[in-house]
Batch of 4 targets.
Target 1
Amino acid sequence: MTRTLLSLMLAALTAPTVLAQVTSPDLTDPEVAHVAVTANTIDIDAARFAQTRSHNEQVLAFAATMIRDHSAVNQQASALATRLHVTPKDNAVSQSLVNGATDAHNVIDAARGPAFDRAYMDREIGYHQAVLDALDNLLIPTTQNAELKKLLVDVRPAIAAHLEHAKQVRAGLEATR
């Protein structure tokens, strides 16, 4: 895997980026599964953190949706991995996501009140765009197992809906400024 791809995925956690410009590395299905679970877990953790910091009803509702939806995907992925006897395998892409999540957490951790809400929603917009890019340009194209690929394809519309929801909440925060 190229260092450029890792850098772009790391940057994707805090700002939108286009992964389509980078040649996708070859990931095994266990590695794809690990990336998917890692990405969902990162967003669940960010949403739980937002629930401890925000007092904005829209942000809190968005965070609750992220916890519910991403937990459901992780449950589906876990059930599929168990059924297929596949153990998700850690890899450089998953590790870069975790490192980027730590950096993103440090950015939003420093903010308070409405500034926190804006920072969290900006992070969610960037993150969901990056996940869509990764699905389209890395995860779906590299996946060999038809059931795993179907799960990724089936989840994509929800990720796109999360992105649009995040944009709406963020726009609402600007309107109340």
Target 2
Amino acid sequence: MTARGARIQTVAAALALAAVTSGCSAVSGGGANAIEPQPPPGSCHARGSGLFSLPDPRCTPGAIDPAVRQANIAETICREGYTSTVRPPESVTEPEKRASLAAYGDDGPLRDYEYDHLVPLELGGAVNDPRNLWPEPGASPNSKDALEHRLNALVCAGKLSLATAQREIASDWVSALHSLTRP
């Protein structure tokens, strides 16, 4: 790796860490139709295990799509069918999922994982940014999916800001799920 490449990686890691510690998601510039490089094999470590594990915040801090803003949610995330218009094709996500599994040190069958958007598309998550995608254990639908739908409903009803929903799910979706389901 060149010195310039090492500096770029250091700056990118620092920005990702700043996004996590500030509670804000990084803004993405990635497109849906290009296979994006993933973190190096074995460099990421999920927190917890099983269906309620969380991604490594250094590798997957979450990232948002700059095209989705509070001012345009009616035309984007609150419009039925929106996510199908931005979701990357499987020809892009399958090779990324394999590389992401290697980054997380997982060698199980692809079917045992969902290549999950940490900040979901229905909350304006980055479409195809490795900072927003990780191999979530378990098949879809799962508990996180229910949280995503609930947060989308709250945002679209004007009961929760888009930024708050994005921050809550990116920082600790398991805690957000438990706080929304407590009686």
Target 3
Amino acid sequence: MGAIAGHSGFVFDDADEPTPALSLVGREFGNYRLLQLLGEGGMGWIYLAHHLRIGRRVAIKMLRPELASDPVAVRRFFAEARAVNRIDHENIVEIHDFVHNEHGYTYLVLEFLVGRDLLTLLESDTGLPLARSVDIMSQVARALAAAHVAGVVHRDLKPENIFLTEHEDGSDYVKLLDFGIAKLMCTSASPRLTRAGTAVGTPNYIAPEQALGADVDHRADIYSFGLILYELATGRRPFACADVVETVAKQVTEVPVRPRELDGSRDIPVALDDLIMRCVAKRAADRPQSMEEVEAALRAIRAALDGDEPIAIALAPEPSLASVSFGALALPQLAPAPRRIAFGAAALLAIGLGGLSLGRAIESGQPAAHAAAAPPAEAAPPPAQVLPPLAAPHRMMGPPSSDAPPRHHRRKAAPVAPPRAVAPPAVPATATAPTGRYDIIPVY
């Protein structure tokens, strides 16, 4: 058979023992023949295939046979197809069909893309121009906006799931991939595939509320989007740790250093710096409230980079971590997570394979409720913002916005009552933050 070269140069050699995945190469499934194994992950395998009748190339995402007998795994697998087809957007990979046949094989048929994912680009390029980074993320913002309008939250946005093909003029054409753990909002009929208290996502890009196992909405995607934008703008991840649990803890408890305050030669625009920091706010209410708002800010930044007249965008005051209260985290030690191999073929990442499910327990408290404090006699200075140490350099580079200006409410003076002798009220015992078991499932 000889060696089979994948689109990224990854080679499977027939000198090795045939694997179950390789054994399917050459077999026919319905109207498709599998031509080449492009990659594999925790839930299944990706193949290049062609339609026997019309000759069209497609990607086949095959669920592992041992999982095909699990009804929950099958429902999650097909939920990706339903989520993608519900959105129907040009910047989201197309899924043509999904099959569960009598022989126990379960697979999706997707469009085959030629190009590479954003992670591969970041690792191979010495520096992306900011203008190109903004163009790429603007397309991601449009795709996510369409998903959110359709009631779909991606929940696993990361560079591996942003695939870059090309327009005829050579410019980047983004395809958003892997809706395998997407959540359908406002759909009571949809089965709940993730139990309460389970966090599903990738530690380097997971939102705080998602890491704590709380219910999430579209603003979790905005947080992940901000972290990717941070990486594009600065060339490093804000929370780069070898340990999975430490990474998740930082996502929950630490405010990253502002991009403009990091050492480096890049001249990051103030508007981009402000947008990034708003997107990565710990509280969902402090982030931009829609991807349309984020995309509008990116358009303004792009115009400024081109030297055009910048668009004025009103910014709400930047929140600090001191306004966020979280329960105590009891974090067990985990071994460093293995690094995912990035493949250049669209189909490989297109599709995400649901990743390697590393279940790890995080004994974590729910975010503590904000206590109502008595109004102070005079304004106190704002608490200092918590800043982490500089993250280790990763490798790479690539938006301001609340349309609502801050409101100022006039507080009525409380009537002063004459002093009188009153017995001090009993002070209840301090309630400890509830703790519970949370599973974090990193997806690589």
Target 4
Amino acid sequence: MAFENITNPENLEEVLNDPLVLGIVLFFIMLIFVLLVGMYIYVSLAHVAIAKKAKNKNSGLAWIPFVGPLLISLQIAKMHWWPLLLMPIPFLFIGFPILSSILNIPFLIFSTIWEFKMFKAVKKPGWWAIFTSALSLIAMITSYFYTPEEVPLYFSGIYLVAFVFYFIFIGIAAWSKKN
């Protein structure tokens, strides 16, 4: 069967010509695409609602891909915009993961402060921002004690837990009736 040979690079062309394997691969690509679009819509809608609760006039900024929610939290926090310039720096060092992560830490700190103040502006606990950022930071730092092949699966689980809590927290902040 084609699945037995999928890890063998010599048989890759043969495997990719198998309609069943191609269908499964396309299904998972479409599933990932739908999930990413759904997450984008959810996060944008939540930040629009948070911006309206915090009486921010620029709630439409939440729809800007990648930086929209950050812009909303930055404006609600009433802080400087220049830390946004730190965001693309780690991507310049993709081949050097430790250096990339070290450069990502200042941006993580600034975005945590923005989100902390954003949650406080809508009368929600600021520790929500610290909790999700701390989980990400723990997973990021501890994963560098391993080679990429040895990284335990639970580090990905820690990131996943951080994302789930983040989605829950922004949903509560956006749509809870109690202020």
